[in-house]
Batch of 2 targets.
Target 1
Amino acid sequence: MALSTIWAQKLKSFFSLIGVLIGVTFLIAVVSIVQGMNVYMEDQFANKLVGLNTFQLLRRPSIQTGDVSSEVRREWARRPLLTHADADYLSERIRTPVQFSRQCDGPVSLTRDGKVARDINFIAAEASYFGIKNYEIANGRAFTPQEVRAGVPVLVIGDLVAEKLFEGLDPVGRDVQIGGIPYRIIGVVAQQGTLFGISLDKFAVAPFTAPGRRLVCATNTIEEFNVQAANVAVMQQAMGEVETLLRARRGLRPTDPNNFHLQTAEGALEGWRKISAVLFAALPGLVAISLVVGGIVIMNIMLMAVSERTREIGVRKALGARRGDILAQFVVESATLSTVGAIFGIGLGIALAFTVRSLTPFPAAIAPWSIGVAVFLGVAVGMTAGIYPANRASRLDPIEALRAE
Amino acid sequence: MTDAVIRLEKITRHYRMGSEVVQALRGVSLSILRNEYTAIMGPSGSGKSTLMNVIGCLDTPDGGAYWLNGQEVSRMTDDALARVRNREIGFVFQTFNLLPRASALQNVELPLVYAGMPGRERRQRAESALARVGLGDRMTHRPNEMSGGQRQRVAIARALVNSPSILLADEPTGNLDSTTSEEIMRVFADLHAQGQTVIMVTHEPDIAAHAARVITLRDGMVATDVLQQSAA
């Protein structure tokens, strides 16, 4: 009955639904997009850039969120460089079970038979680097600790590099040149995809002892020291240990701040978390505003319906409808109206989320709880908005109502 | 006395119209027996509409007492009156008052919905009520797909579906042409013959002539109360 009334007044119903529709669309879309961005930031951004349960020892932060004052920048510039001696010192003394790899990187060009792959991130690292980065070797193999010790010029390349230089050929066993130094390719890393539209497959990893490292690091220095633990607790422990060891080595007094930086995925995510928290904090307010507006519109539509259908109410009362029957009828109608709006809103919200998903790298996923909340809000808004008109209808005097035209 | 479906004793009812107080009923006393066919007549302003509303439990009197089927209904609450209307009274209106978007069957089912009857039984009862007024083949039609006479018969089926103590008709032929009016009067006569108590409010003497008893109101009081020999 309620549905047929709504159907009979399609246009009016549609306009009365807009408020609820917008509110719910907003709820579903924002929740799924922000959650998608969260997943993206945590899975892709932080873990691909830093690594899971991994921290990096750096001279200064490499991932910055928010503004950095020039004063802070000057302090960073005064910090001592990290050296191989620092890395050796830490490797020998760290007792927490962790994997670590020193690392230097920078852009280089790879050439082969006149073909050039420019702007490739050349990474000089240790054998454990592949484990830390969670790189799967799609073809060939990674280099070994023995090869690192011996400083063999071997190279493991990213998917895009292989495609650029070899297109179709098997790159394993072939040579490329980096800054005039020949490297033998021994492996290709499985495709990593993109981050914010930037390919993560444009890299080449070589042992840090190999001759080419001077291309990316000054003599005896390293850019970062990657440490990976089995879980977050062990990682925290290792961080504490690295901090203590390095402070002792550099002779820092307890009051001195660290003149190095320990960077984690968590830390890198902090800025994003703030943005996401603000969005989530603003969401209830925005949804509430449109739902209140939607509720008021529905209330007015229902008041109109009550006055238009006064005679019907009189007839129903004459036939034995009690006050509660009339009340229930109009509250149900109002709730149905609003729920229909919410359902359209859910549909629209899902459509929006999927549009964002297909146009951006964010894996916008529909949160089941947001659909639950949306349906609940639809019913609640409709019932609340319907109570006043329904109460008016239920209090109509049957004689007067029957006389109405 | 035991067979009186309706017993009114010194019923009074007044309205306030602006600053004026209108005495619509000034002490109406009457009894209507089971299976009586009664017409209530009177010029406009005589109080017949008010009397009908009181008899139909749509209105409560200011003074006096009203027993309907042995129940004192003059001091009941709104919800109790709704129940009485649902069980004891079948209304037939001048303008039919069918729900426009509902089918004939749904319209007839409505009183049963308010009686809380389960769906299947409701449907059966509504179907047999429609068959009783000769509309067995029009159940799924909507009011706007039917003629005036058919609409009024749907309304009569709706009034009968709860087996009420009284069938209360307010100008039942007021919106119908004379041929259709005769048709509706035959339906009333048949129902009366089957034992139904019928009360009809009208201002048309030739419609009132179908009733066995004619009560005429004037100035809120019973003027005449005549048993007619000629009636069915």
Note: The two ends of chain B are 24 Å apart (CA to CA).
Target 2
Amino acid sequence: MTDQQQADLRHDEVQAGTTTGLAAPSVDVTDARQNSLWSDAWRELKRNPLFWIGSVFGVVFLLMAMFPAVFARGADPRDCDLTNSKLPPSAEHWFGFDQQGCDYLANVVYGARNSLVIGVLAVLVVLVLGLFVGAVSGFFGGVTDSILSRITDIFYAVPFILGAIVVLRSGTLGRGVVAVAIALAAFGWMTAMRLVRSQVIAVKSSDYVAAARAMGASNRRILVRHILPNAVAPVLVYATITVGVLIAAEATLTFLGVGLQRPAISWGLQIDAGQSLLRTAPHLVLFPSIVLTVTVMAFIMLGDALRDALDPRQRS
Amino acid sequence: MTGADISSYPESTAVAGAPVLEVDDLHVEFRTRENVVNAVNGVSYTVNRGETLAILGESGSGKSVSAQAIMGILDTPPAVITGGGLLFEGRDLLSMSDEERRRVRGPGISMIFQDALSSLNPVYSVGFQIGEMFRAHRGVSRKEAKQRAVELMDRVRIPAAAQRVNDYPHQFSGGMRQRVMIAMAIALDPKILIADEPTTALDVTVQAQVMDLLKDLQRETGMGLVLITHDLGVVNEVADNVAVMYAGRIVERGTVDDVFSNPGHPYTEGLMNSVPQVEAKGGRLQPISGQPPNLAKIPSGCPFHPRCFRRRLGADALPGRDCADDVPPLRLVVPGREAACHYSEEVLGV
């Protein structure tokens, strides 16, 4: 707390001490609408440059995934000409050509869709699993909590990528987009669960829940007004950041040869194919890597902005 | 909402003079795997309209637990109400359904807590939280709730209420936060307000302001105030009657003036002697010897006897009044004064 703020607080006390009698009961409220957590958070978000940078990149990425043809400048990623093999970037073809002589910009743009679908799908599974298991564990406690927490620990013990590799190599799920998303989510939900669990436990026994109860709040109101907002906010932040992390993890799996497979188009596959040609055609690794990095960063920035906005104590 | 006289509350079913809140032989225990802790062992008191009853006691004397039992916010388990009755306006709180009970909290009985910062939800503005009282109980619109919140903040004398209604709890000072809590607690004009150590976390100057505010609000609304505290100074300033608690029992009860000027129980006497006196400047304080009792193993007979310098054991004791064997009941010693001591007359010097 700054000196100025402290001085303000001091001022309040002094004023309160000198005020005698009751002020006029009719006070005109400049903004009659009652603020809620979310409207205040939105106001805060709008002021945060991180949010705008993250959003712009995020929206561009989203549009790329939805309408790749627009961003590919009319090129078809599968329309290849071997005579163009490994040509460097030019004014006509911004990202150059890959080994097969396919337009590389088109390839990178078309890769966005798989990345986004896998990232979002995996995060949804993470959210559902994390919220459900975490809420049950935190709310009921006792034996239920012990059992669920130990199960979570078992998943924690398996390294994220290693677990996904084992699941994907077993072949039972296949090697499609859904399979990769499930494999990633299956070993990525534990942090969300712990977040929710600890929040639910903390809020459940907090003084303000006791106070709300003492003032006649119903169980439903306590759940909706106190427990959920306090539990959902950090999870939302985590989920946003995790979209980025999962997109990177998908690229990693694919690069390692256990994720998506050709003829699918994916940044991981492009980086994998490019690495052997790193010396002769560095742009083949460079462009998908840059786009991947920017995408991951956009989600992390959004997550950071969201965290600041959802915690009133962080606000200036 | 402005200063109202007592007769303007037609919805009150309490007859003038009749107690609004009656606590009758309340027993609360905490059951853990290892042992049973007897936190409240037969507490009885009544609170009338406009009365301020101070419950005075050290930490672990059961004063907060009895308040939580009245509010119905004890964590059960481990806490269990094992006996006694709670009557609010003649209705038995303990036999009510959860829903009926919930409806009493807020408009009937309300409570403020010691630590206002942790008692306010950090993610909502104070105006929203005060407004919630109206939205939850009266179903008013958001807009009206905010208007009412500003009025209430004005009423508890928060400066520039209309500007501060959207501020968050952490942006307020300790005294202001406690005012916000008070605003929430009095929002629905409760008949009884329980204040659990409302000023313990505050500076001394701010303490006085908050107590003045509570007193003024009480005068306006005629609510009964149950003030739980360990601060003798606060009791002396604002309370009408005082009940002194020790080991989950009331050991002495009377008007504040009487009890403070001439204690009728050795424990109260010890408390008074342990307060620094301006006249006795430079002298040594007289603490009460020994430790507060372990509530899982309350001493036999009078729970205070191991620490009591007036105790009479064995041959010294009168028949049936051995401090180590016979539990002293809370009895009328002189008119208007009850004490739970076999030798209270001796303590009083009557």
Note: The radius of gyration of chain B is 21 Å.
